[in-house]
Specification:
The complex is a heterotrimer of chains A (243), B (376) and C (294).
Chain A (H helix, E strand, L loop, with lengths): L1 E3 L2 E4 L11 E5 L6 H8 L11 E2 L2 E2 L5 H7 L1 E4 L11 H8 L6 H14 L2 H4 L10 H13 L5 E5 L7 H16 L3 E6 L2 H7 L2 E6 L2 E7 H6 L2 H7 L12 H4 L2
Parallel strand pairs in A: 3-8, 3-9, 6-7, 7-8
Antiparallel strand pairs in A: 1-2, 4-5, 9-10
Chain B lengths: L1 H50 L3 H27 L7 H15 L2 H7 L5 H4 L5 H23 L4 H21 L1 H4 L14 H20 L1 H11 L1 H6 L4 H27 L9 H14 L4 H19 L1 H4 L7 H16 L15 H11 L13
Helix pairs in contact in B: 1-2, 1-9, 2-9, 2-12, 2-13, 2-14, 3-6, 3-7, 3-12, 6-12, 9-12, 10-12, 13-14, 14-16
Chain C lengths: L1 H31 L6 H15 L4 H24 L7 H23 L4 E2 L9 E4 L2 E4 H23 L1 H11 L1 H6 L4 H27 L1 E2 L3 H16 L4 H21 L8 H15 L8 H4 L3
Antiparallel strand pairs in C: 1-4, 2-3
Helix pairs in contact in C: 1-5, 1-6, 1-8, 1-9, 1-10, 2-3, 2-4, 2-8, 2-9, 3-8, 5-6, 5-8, 6-8, 9-10, 10-11
The chains are: A alpha/beta (243), B mainly alpha (376), C mainly alpha (294).
Chain lengths: 243, 376, 294
């Protein structure tokens, strides 16, 4: 349970993510999705509850140690260090690591994965476009070699083509064995690449299940838009996007 | 017969109804103003006790009351706006010097301040008038300063007020013909008594309380928490801050005048770091956000300084400076462990006597009857 | 012309000192939103250590002085500031005010309120002749020291991992932590660095004035404050530049003012500062994103 002052933001949430699995959390804005991620990372205090990684409890750990346990965060709105260069941002992602050669090798791998970053390695990160910043944020998070990656609304403000690229990368990562918890606004895309889905509304989990099953549930979009199921829905647009 | 009875009954009912309304209104007014009244009663009680004590005690209490006036004035601005005005003592200085200029007998002025412009040399007001004008002068200066200062961010404004204090002190120190410069201004009529100090303290408490319960005070406190939110609600932060700043300066200036007529001789050094620290400590320890805190903090710190500075009391050789260290440690301790001060930002609440009885009985342990004992 | 150059060197020396003070304050503000009122007391404590050790071989004295400042800074951080780290900026400011006052009163209690005079080696007062000017050696040393420290700080921040982490933490503390930057280490580092700056400053100050008293911190911290605010809170470059501006301004005003008005120097300087703040409330280099946290 997470409280911001007198307001209880999250209540009674239970999630799990397995290695090599992409789990998506969808839900309307204000449902508490971002709060949940910051709580996992230890920056927002938990009133009560359990967060554990591979059986080890992470409750009460400061963020610095949670990262060292193998969880990395790609936050909503990226939180890139605009005053630092792209390379410096990447190096910061590797803060917990001591193997300099390994870090170098990983940076090279990241540049392979996200070629656009190579051209602006020494530019100040504030000058990058939204899409480039998003890729930088993911690369930076990956540099700590996490076992679990938390990704918060990566498609926010990005053109669809760039979002496609980002999602491709996420799928590759999952195939490589990393567990990913993906929070998304656009439930269609999330459903398409997720193995399992949770629906979060007003701080509580409403539904969960395999993505395949939920994809068919019509009232999923309604939950997103806030309508009661069965009542007037806007026609066209949404339905046709799903293929 | 019957009709006159009825009209008599009706009149009585009318009167009773009016009395009830009056009673309710009075109750409401009483409850509303209780926090301020309580403080006034408290101070009055202290004065009453001191009246029976030695002249030394009375002087100490008078000094404390002057501090109450200054600290409450300080609180009016800091507590409501959230901006810690480091340079507020400049208003104390203005109040003191202006009142001095207005009230020192012309003959004395002629001797001590020979280069005073003739116009000023002729001024002679009664002390109360002088103090009042001193307060107004401080308020006027605050009104002018508010234009640039109140637009700044919190920390910027705090530092800027410090700059103002320095400017004021430097100017006073250099304007020797008018202020007596670094050697100071002498000859202020020693008219501050315990009662006049009490009166000013009460005026300050009343003023601060009315302000904080007023619409302006409420708007200001809203902006204290969240500037962006307040602005988006259409609150004119600059205006509310300025109002508080000017009112605060007036009350603080009154305190300054009182101070001047208490010590009789003032110099720029008296209004610098020492007083700033003392006043700040009193407010912080009591609780920055409450009027009760301002008053209680002043009483507490005055008592503490007195006890610690009074080596005769314990027959221990307490070196001078211990009280300052103790004060500093206390202030720091409060900031670390209880940043809202002793009162935690709360005011005294009116406790309904009927409710009090119920509360007490709920707290007392239930009577236990031991076996073998009868109800004796 | 000579007079102008003389004033210029004077001004540079002043400006360098002011920039150092400003940096000490800006470093800490960068990582924890705290304007450290007690920074001046670091110089004061270091100055007293110098006083206590005077007569010993001077390299030892200098090292001890700087160490004293660093230790005091770290203590300050651990005892007074760590518990209140997440408080709002005004509370932090007032806390540092309390720390400053505490240190001052302890100094007054233990050392007495009167200034203590310090013997400085003779060469400190000497001047060198450069192209027709008599330049005090001390001023040259000051300028050189300021330059070296500024460069060293710059290298540290830009070329080392810890420096990188500090810059990141200064921009977005929460995100830095989430990447693994240890909050406690970074804050302690910032205090240690500001301690080094304060310690070096103390050496210069003592050499210049040959005395130390409990209240010297106030004047210095005021300068540092004002410099950072002029340059823009939240920017290290801004602090340094603010320090330079204030230093030059002070010397300029001093030279320009006619003798009768010399006493008003500080008042004039502060009046100008307030004007600058009026025109640019966020400081000359300040940006909206940082100063608005206040």
């Amino acid at each position: 349970m997470v409280r911001y002052g007198a307001v209880t933001a999250l209540h009674g949430i239970s999630l799990h993510v397995n290695a090599g699995e992409l789990v998506s959390v969808v839900g309307p804005n204000g449902a508490g999705k971002s709060t949940m991620l910051w709580a996992v990372m230890g920056t927002v205090p938990l009133k009560n509850g359990v967060i554990s990684l591979a059986g080890r409890s992470l409750a009460g750990m400061p963020p610095e140690n949670i990262v060292r346990s193998g969880i990395a965060l790609v936050p909503e709105r990226r939180h890139i260090f605009t005053q630092l260069s792209v390379l410096e941002n990447l190096l910061l992602g590797a803060t917990p690591r001591k193997d300099r050669a390994g870090v170098k090798a990983d940076i090279v791998r990241m540049l392979d994965l996200f070629p656009v970053l190579e051209t602006c390695l020494h530019t100040s990160a504030g000058k990058l476009s939204g899409g480039q910043q998003q890729q930088l944020a993911i690369a930076r998070a990956l540099l700590s070699r996490p076992r679990l990656l938390l990704v918060d609304e990566p498609s926010l403000g990005l053109a669809p083509i760039v979002t496609d690229k980002v999602y491709e990368v996420l799928q590759e990562l999952v195939r490589a064995g990393i567990a990913i918890l993906l929070i998304e606004q656009s439930s269609v895309r999330a459903l398409n690449i997720a193995d399992r889905v949770y629906l979060l509304r007003s701080g509580q989990i409403e539904r969960s299940g395999n993505a395949g099953d939920l994809r068919e549930a019509v009232d999923l979009e309604d939950s997103y838009f806030g309508f009661e199921s069965g009542v007037d829905r806007p026609s066209g647009g949404w339905h046709s996007e799903r293929s | 017969m019957a009709s006159s009875d009825r009209s008599g009954a009706r009149t009585i009912c009318d009167l009773m109804g009016k009395a009830a309304i009056f009673q309710r209104g009075f109750n409401q007014a009483w409850v509303w103003s209780w926090p301020a009244f309580a403080l006034v009663f408290l101070l009055g009680f202290i004065v009453f006790l001191a009246g029976a004590g030695s002249p030394y005690l009375q002087r100490t209490v008078t000094a404390m009351l002057i501090n109450v006036c200054i600290v409450v004035g300080f609180y009016l601005f800091v507590g409501n706006s959230g901006i810690f005005s480091f340079g507020h003592i400049s208003f104390v200085a203005i109040g003191a010097y202006v009142s001095g200029l207005l009230t020192i007998a012309p003959d004395t002025k002629h001797i001590l301040l020979p280069n005073l412009p003739a116009v000023m040399a002729g001024w002679e007001l009664s002390t109360p008038a002088g103090i009042a004008v001193g307060g107004l002068a401080a308020a006027a200066m605050a009104a002018v300063l508010a234009v640039p200062l109140m637009r700044m961010s919190g920390i910027g404004a705090s530092i800027a007020t410090l700059g103002v204090l320095i400017i004021v002190i430097v100017v006073i120190g250099n304007l020797t013909s008018i202020t007596g410069g670094l050697s100071g201004m002498l000859g202020l009529p020693l008219d501050t008594t315990m009662s006049s100090a009490l009166l000013c303290a009460c005026i300050a408490i009343a003023g601060a309380y009315i302000f904080q319960r007023s619409g302006s005070g409420l708007l200001l406190r809203a902006s204290r928490e969240d500037v962006a939110a307040a602005t988006s609600l259409g609150i004119n932060i600059w205006r509310e801050r300025s109002i508080a700043f000017v009112l605060s300066a007036f009350l603080t200036g009154l305190g300054g005048g009182l101070f001047g007529h208490f010590v009789g001789a003032i110099n720029p050094d008296a209004f610098y770091v020492g007083m700033t620290v003392t006043v700040s400590a009193m407010l912080i320890i009591g609780g920055v956000r409450s009027l009760t805190g301002a008053v209680l903090g002043t009483i507490l710190v005055s008592a503490l300084t007195e006890i610690l500075g009074n080596t005769a009391l314990f027959h221990l050789p307490i070196p001078p400076g211990v009280s300052t260290v103790a004060l500093a440690t206390l202030m720091l301790g409060i900031l670390i462990f209880r940043p809202q001060g002793i009162t935690s930002g709360a005011e005294l609440k009116w406790v309904d006597p009927r409710g009090l009885g119920a509360w007490l009985s709920s707290r007392l342990p239930a009577a236990r009857v031991r076996p073998g004992e009868s109800g004796r | 012309m000579n007079l102008f150059l003389q004033s210029l060197i004077d001004a540079l020396s002043f400006a360098g000192v002011y920039a150092l003070i400003a940096l000490g304050i800006a470093l800490i503000f960068g990582v924890m939103n705290l304007v450290n009122f007690a920074h001046g007391e670091l110089v004061m404590v270091a100055g007293y250590v110098f006083f206590l050790l005077q007569g010993a071989p001077w390299p030892l004295v200098i090292v001890a002085t700087v160490c004293a400042a660093v230790i005091t800074a770290l203590l300050m951080e651990r005892v007074a500031f760590r518990p209140v780290r997440s408080a709002d900026p005004t509370t932090l400011l007032v806390t540092s005010f309390a720390v400053s006052f505490l240190l001052q009163s302890i100094a007054m209690l233990t050392m007495g309120a009167r200034p203590k005079s310090i013997e400085v080696p003779a060469f400190v007062g000497e001047s060198i002749a450069i192209g027709g000017l008599r330049v005090p050696k001390l001023e040259l040393v000051t300028i050189a020291l300021a330059f070296v420290l500024l460069m060293a700080l710059n290298v540290f921040l830009r070329r080392t991992a810890l420096g990188r982490q500090m810059r990141a933490a200064a921009e977005d503390f929460q995100m830095a932590r989430v990447l693994g930057v240890r909050a406690d280490t970074i804050v302690a580092m910032a205090f240690a660095l500001s301690g080094i700056l304060a310690g070096c400053l103390a050496v210069i100050y003592v050499a210049q004035t040959a005395s130390v008293s409990p209240v010297i911190g106030l004047q210095l911290v005021l300068i540092g404050f004002v410099s950072t605010v002029i340059g823009g809170l939240g920017s290290l470059e801004g602090a340094a530049i603010g320090g330079f501006v204030l230093g030059f301004l002070t010397v300029m005003i001093q030279t320009i003012l006619p003798p009768e008005l010399r006493g008003y120097r500080d008042a004039v300087v502060f009046a100008i500062v307030i004007t600058i703040l009026l025109i640019r409330p966020h400081g000359l280099l300040g940006s909206l994103r940082r100063s608005d946290y206040l």
